[in-house]
Please model this.
Amino acid sequence: MKNPYEIVKRRRVTEKARVLENLQHATSTKSLIRCKTPKIVFEVDLTANKSEIKRAVELIYAEKNVKVMSVNTISTPAKKRRVRGHAGMTSRLKKAVVSFRPGDVIDEKA
Model:
């Protein structure tokens, strides 16, 4: 088995990720009130599958006693970019949206 820190590389802190994390506190519409499970976005290894990601997140946050309910993955392909006249490619990326039990909290300073 791989090291959990090789599978889960880092936490993605973007505007969309913050909106997703704060959905559990939303009360504006009936559909948003039903979103009680906290969700956090991580950047993961390209070869990791959902069960490996689930096991790695539970091992990393074992002291906080969190339980992963579901994992959704998104693979982003490399894109062409041009910097100062030189053509290149961005790196490939795989993100995982991890849903926890209602009430589970992971407070990290990002």
